[in-house]
């Protein structure tokens, strides 16, 4: 999934947080809802105007970001 075609970031929208293009729906909000147990279908019902591929782009973006991080052992 090419998340760049579905997501954007601008300092003028939510202080530069990544959002679903042409919305003010932040990627972290979608991920939080998924983490809280909401299904993709429930998120789509609660957020008219977005598509399943937008949610998949949020997941793909988070995977991309996390794959470049390292966790220091404590």
TrEMBL record:
Q: Which domain of life is it from?
A: Bacteria
Q: Which SUPFAM superfamilies match?
A: Homeodomain-like
Q: Know the name of this protein?
A: DUF433 domain-containing protein
Task: Check the record and name the InterPro entries matching this protein.
Answer: DUF433 (IPR007367), Homeodomain-like_sf (IPR009057), WH-like_DNA-bd_sf (IPR036388)
